[in-house]
Design brief:
The complex is a heterotrimer of chains A (about 240), B (about 550) and C (about 325).
Chain A lengths: L28 H36 L1 H8 L4 H26 L3 H31 L25 H37 L9 H25 L5
Helix pairs in contact in A: 1-2, 1-5, 1-6, 2-5, 3-4, 3-6, 4-5, 5-6
Chain B lengths: L21 H5 L4 H29 L10 H20 L2 H15 L7 H23 L13 H5 L4 H28 L12 H33 L12 H35 L6 H15 L14 H29 L8 H24 L1 H7 L3 H31 L5 H28 L13 H31 L39 H5 L12
Helix pairs in contact in B: 2-3, 2-4, 2-5, 2-16, 4-7, 4-8, 4-14, 5-7, 7-8, 8-9, 8-10, 9-10, 9-11, 9-12, 9-14, 10-11, 11-12, 12-14, 12-15, 14-15, 15-16
Chain C lengths: L13 H34 L15 H29 L7 E8 L2 E6 L4 E3 L1 E5 L3 E8 L4 E5 L4 E5 L5 E6 L4 E7 L12 E6 L1 H9 L6 H11 L2 H4 L18 E3 L5 E3 L2 H9 L22 H13 L16 H7 L3
Parallel strand pairs in C: 1-5, 4-10
Antiparallel strand pairs in C: 1-2, 2-3, 5-8, 6-7, 6-9, 9-10, 11-12
Helix pairs in contact in C: 1-2, 4-7, 6-7
The chains are: A mainly alpha (about 240), B mainly alpha (about 550), C alpha+beta (about 325).
Chain lengths: ~240, ~550, ~325
């Protein structure tokens, strides 16, 4: 039936010149690339579950305290949030262009696109910072100095939001957008390394896996925001 | 046991002696060395958790609370749980045996991401240091389940640090799972198809799926608990508009699948050990493999069976109860298949097989008592009592730890290049089995009679059962100490092990004992099915002559 | 059972026998299954012990066998599930006209108040043969009211009511335990359920002084000014509370909910979220201004304004299924 021996030739020991980026425990570059891709997708799955717990808590409270959440939502700046959404979508575009640049050996364009991506990322964080500052000034940050008195519930004239419930909105708002911002910052760190590697000429049409998986991560962070924005900013807006 | 203590022969190069020095270990990316790093760390935490258990059982010798103070006792059971669950049971088999064996079993040189593997260990150590520091500087007293609002608004113990420790160590688990999934998908040797994989690999694959999907939820839950505590938020606190049941749902959404992380790898070991010592293929390979996946999937659907009296609706309870029965079916199927494997086998009674027999009995009892708890009307009486404690210890200790010990014995020659003393190992297996049953069977009775869990003092009529349990615990402790002693002993004085002392099937046995750093001289090409014992035992294939050193 | 080696607690309630029957069935099934596996393992291990020159027979598997031992256990499990579900429904369906006792748990004691007015700490006196419904809440953390002799347990939560019920069948004193870890003195939060003959119980009851809980509630209702808006002539700015309890109520946000204990409690503590349709959002919240015991008294009073609620009557009628919905927490 079968041959029990292990002795069989394999490609692993051919003495051909291979990309210095090939790690020794992989048999082929394709195997290494496929592993990196699958690894990043799995990591993103874990991130979905990570944010998922927060989304779950948010949706439950939003349903329970809809009016109060609507009032709280109308106090955060949808224009700034919308701008941030556009910024992130543009940054995902520049990421895609960067990868295309690598695939077509356009090193200059690659570097420009990477820098643009990072600039968009910084813009996002800057706008977020402004939003946080506004909330701080308005005493909407949960904690000892939180205040949300006499805020009307949209669509229900004469009714005012329960500050206790509104504080839950803001707690979740800060935790969710804060966690997202931390992921952005990590993304910026990743892209700093990618920029450096691109500058050193490490990426070629045959090998640019770090760009691809870094891009995947960036797109994921973008998608999380695309869910966050309508959920948090657009409750009951007309 | 008459092994002369000779000077070790001049050894050929293997993964243990290739480099010397602390840095060669602390900066290694060799999956085998990382497995040993984990072995040392989880054994350390097992000791700590075990010490807490000993103190708990000593306190419970008498009805009055007279050994330690109430607050201290509460910290003891909390930390026993946290340390055992997060720092021993969850990592143990995957991080030690999984790390060591997964690449070997599939014919790879290492895991897909060796540096992430090392990072995983460092994250584990960081979490461990945080946990140790937390315990030393005051500890926590919420129970390992840290229910709110007690944990967020009432206790004044070190919740933040414990929450951080759990958050950190969770990433170790996630990264290990990620590594295994990618490795199993992408790095199988040519010819190693899915249906030729050892069932150990299937079990670790299923475990890894749970690790990557479940652990992030406990991570975010600890973040929320810490945030609530520090910032006085109201996510789980009813006084601030929050819902304590939301915490329980989030907590159990991970912590139930977590128990499958603890048992599935052990089941994988069972398949390897039982096949080897019956000298035949596991009966119903496809069904056993599929059962592992089924357990992983269904395991995510039953979490609220921990909440039947918590205040959930009757209709929710019905759904979770019926699903809990569904998840019991694949486990039962596995036990039947292992038992059927013995039929017309050629059974050897080596120590790993004795542990396997023990597993079969104890896991069966533990699993059956799960049926008691899944029955809604009965759970009302049994939940939060010693019945539950007995149930989960039967599975986690009688199941998972017995499996772990079976695996450690089975693969010890491969890992260390030495044989352990067989008679002492068989004795230890027997002592563990007896000690275990004496410790935990009385607890089923205690539970039905009404002794609640986490009780530091109890009515006098419960004393006899408690004394029996404590007596068992001392025996069990001896049973656990023995392997630690003789494994260490064997590293210096044990007989050098041949490449395949058990004439077992599997690619890992085709490497030297211990293996070289890169596992295989040449990438293997697999042309045979798993568990090919027919060929291994055929008369023309004698036991391999040990490789001359 | 045996004094020092107890195997099960006393059977002192109508549910105890049901629960024990299911338990015994499961013990038998488990013993059979364990025995089967044990015998199989021991027999195979001995019969097929390794022998010189005898090889193992490679058997891949048997799909019919797999199906058999999948489907049969599954059916057995479904039987157990159904049996457990039936018992659970009974446990969660308090009979109509059960006597009500309000329970407030706190670290680390049980405070109980009968609707007739008697107050107890860590003890509950009940007569044999009477349906008793516990309406429970916690002042601080989660506790759990556990009486092994009744096979009864229910978590007690802060911020809402949970219910449990029993009918005691045997006079005696039985353990009351807290079964949800709640801090330092969790294991000290124990008490006694004292089941008495009806005559003895009457004697015990007449010894108390405060008057029915609903009367206390009426007093608080007046003192806090509730009667200004909630007038019995329906002229007030708040809904008339006559005959409200136990019936559906349409809320301003369009939902219809059952006016049960939790509803009344939330109206007092978080009126904005429970506003009745057709009324202005002007009711102030009493969060922080009333204790749990006072809320209990108010709930008892509102109940007394409905014809259906006449606590203290013991009937032998079967429980009504709608009670399951009205009494059940979320």
């Amino acid at each position: 039936m079968s041959d029990n021996s292990v002795a069989a030739t394999s490609p692993a020991h051919h003495h051909h010149h291979h990309n210095p980026a090939l790690l020794h425990h992989f048999a082929t570059e394709q195997q290494q690339k496929d592993s990196a891709d699958l690894g990043m997708w799995i990591f993103l799955a874990t991130e979905v579950m990570f944010f998922g717990g927060l989304f779950c808590a948010y949706l439950i409270y939003r349903r329970a305290y809809y009016g109060d959440f609507a009032a709280a939502s109308s106090s955060i700046d949808a224009a700034l949030g919308g701008t941030n959404t556009a910024v992130l979508i543009c940054s995902s575009l520049t990421v895609v262009l960067a990868i295309w640049a690598a695939q077509t050996a356009r090193r200059g364009l690659l570097i420009v696109m990477l820098i643009l991506t990072m600039l968009f990322g910084c813009a996002f964080l800057g706008i977020k910072g402004k939003e946080y500052k506004d909330k701080f000034v308005e005493h909407h940050v949960p904690g000892a100095s939180f205040s949300f008195e006499h805020e009307p519930i949209p669509g229900h004239p004469g009714e005012y939001a329960n500050p206790v419930h509104a504080e839950i909105f803001f707690a979740l708002y800060f935790i969710m957008t804060g966690l997202h911002a931390i992921h952005m910052i990590i993304g910026l760190g990743l892209f700093t390394w990618l920029l450096w590697a691109a500058w050193k000429g490490r990426f070629t049409p045959e090998y640019h896996t770090p760009l691809e998986i870094g891009g995947l991560y960036w797109h994921f962070v973008d998608i999380v925001w695309i869910y966050l924005f309508p959920l948090l900013y657009l409750i009951d807006r007309h | 046991m008459a092994t002369a203590a000779v000077a070790p022969p001049v050894e050929r190069e293997n993964y243990l002696n290739k480099h010397y020095g602390a840095w060669s270990w602390l900066l290694t990316t060799d999956h085998k060395r990382i497995a040993l790093l984990y072995l040392v760390s989880i054994t350390f935490f097992f000791f700590i958790g075990g010490l807490f258990a000993l103190l708990i059982r000593l306190e419970l010798l008498t009805p009055a609370g007279d050994l330690v103070q109430a607050d201290t006792y509460n910290k003891l059971f909390t930390q026993h749980g946290m340390v055992m669950v997060f720092f021993f049971l969850i990592p143990s088999i995957p991080a030690v045996l999984g790390n060591f064996l997964v690449p070997l079993m599939i014919g790879a040189k290492d895991l897909a991401f060796p540096r992430i593997n090392l990072l995983s260990w460092y994250i584990y150590i960081t979490g461990g240091i945080l946990m140790l520091h937390c315990m030393i500087t005051g500890g926590v007293d919420t129970g390992w389940t840290f229910y709110t609002p007690f944990s967020t608004a009432f206790t004044n113990t070190k919740i933040v640090e414990a929450g951080l420790a759990i958050f950190v160590v969770g990433f170790s688990s996630i990264l290990t799972g990620l590594n295994f999934i990618v490795t199993i998908h992408r790095m199988r040797a040519p010819g190693m198809t899915w249906s030729r994989l050892p069932l150990f690999i299937w079990a670790h694959y299923a475990t890894s799926v749970i690790q990557i999907l479940g652990t992030p939820v406990i991570a975010i839950t600890s973040v929320l608990v810490v945030a609530e505590r520090v910032l006085h938020l109201g996510i789980f606190d009813p006084k601030l508009g929050g819902d304590p049941l939301l915490f329980q749902h989030l907590f159990w959404f991970y912590s139930h699948p977590a128990v499958y992380i603890m048992i599935l790898p052990s089941m994988g070991i069972m398949s390897e050990v039982i096949a080897c010592y019956s000298r035949k293929r596991i009966f119903g390979y496809n069904f056993v493999a599929l059962s592992s996946i089924a357990i992983a999937v269904f395991g995510f659907l039953v979490w609220a069976h921990h909440m039947f009296v918590a205040g959930i609706s009757v209709y929710a309870a019905l759904i979770f109860s019926i699903l809990s029965y569904a998840v019991a079916v694949p486990s039962a199927v596995k036990v039947f298949n292992w038992t059927a494997t013995l039929y017309k086998g050629s059974i050897h009674y080596d120590a790993p097989m004795l542990y396997a027999f023990g597993f079969l009995g104890l896991f069966t009892i533990g699993g059956l008592t799960g049926l008691f708890l899944a029955a809604l009307g009965l759970d009302v009486h049994l939940t939060d009592t010693y019945f539950v404690i007995a149930h989960f210890h039967y599975i986690m200790v009688g199941g998972a730890v017995m499996g772990y010990l079976a695996g450690m014995h089975f693969w010890w020659p491969k890992i260390s290049g030495r044989m352990y003393p067989e008679m002492w190992a068989r004795l230890a297996a027997l002592i563990v089995f007896i000690g275990f049953n004496l410790t935990f069977f009385p607890q089923f009775l205690l539970g039905y009679v009404g002794m609640p869990r986490r009780y530091y003092q109890y009515p006098p009529e419960f004393q006899v059962l408690n004394v029996l349990s404590t007596a068992g615990a001392t025996v069990l402790g001896v049973g656990y100490l023995l392997p630690m002693i003789y494994f260490l002993w064997s590293m210096r004085y044990g007989k050098p092990a041949p490449d395949n002392p058990w004439n077992a099937a599997g690619l890992e046995w085709k490497t030297p004992s211990p293996p070289t750093t890169f596992n295989f001289e040449q990438e293997p090409v697999v042309t045979w099915e798993a568990y090919n014992y027919e060929e291994l035992d055929a008369p023309q294939h004698k036991q391999e002559v040990p490789v001359v050193r | 059972m045996f004094d020092n080696f107890p195997l099960w607690p006393a059977r002192a309630s109508t549910m105890a026998g049901n629960v024990d029957a299911l338990y015994i069935f499961l013990v038998i099934v488990s013993a059979l299954m364990t025995g089967l596996i044990f015998v199989a393992i021991v027999y195979f291990a001995a019969r097929y012990r390794k022998q010189e020159g005898v090889l193992a027979e490679q058997i891949d598997g048997s799909t019919p066998l797999e199906l058999t031992w999948t489907i049969i256990p599954f059916f057995v499990f479904m039987v157990i599930f159904l049996w457990g579900a039936v018992v659970y429904f009974k446990e969660h369906t308090p009979p109509r006209d059960a006597t009500e006792v309000y329970v407030v748990a706190k670290q680390w004691m049980w405070k109980l108040e009968h609707s007739e007015g008697q107050r107890e700490i860590n003890e509950l006196h009940v007569p044999v043969g009477r349906d008793v419904k516990l309406i429970m809440t916690s002042q601080d953390v989660i506790h759990s009211f556990y009486v092994p002799a009744f096979r009864m347990k229910q978590d007690v939560l802060p911020g809402r009511y949970t219910m449990a019920w029993f009918r005691a069948t045997k006079p005696g004193t039985y353990h009351l335990f807290c079964a949800e870890y709640c801090g330092t003195q969790h294991s000290g939060m124990i008490g006694d359920i004292v089941v008495m003959e009806p005559a003895q119980y009457e004697a015990w009851t007449s010894g108390s002084s405060t008057g029915p809980l609903s009367a206390t509630g009426e007093k608080i209702f007046g003192e806090l000014g509730c009667s200004t808006c909630h007038r019995a002539d329906s002229q007030g700015r708040g809904p008339n509370l006559q005959n409200v309890f136990g019936k559906p109520v349409e809320l301003a946000d369009g939902r219809t909910v059952m006016a049960d204990e939790n509803y009344v409690r939330e109206c007092i503590l978080d009126p904005g979220s429970r506003r009745v349709k057709g009324f202005q959002p002007i009711m102030p919240t009493f969060q922080g201004l009333v204790s749990e015991e006072q809320v209990n008294a108010l709930v008892a009073y509102v109940k007394s304004l409905s014809k259906a609620a006449t606590p203290g009557t013991n009937t032998a009628e079967a429980a009504s299924p709608s009670d399951a919905a009205s009494g059940k927490a979320r």
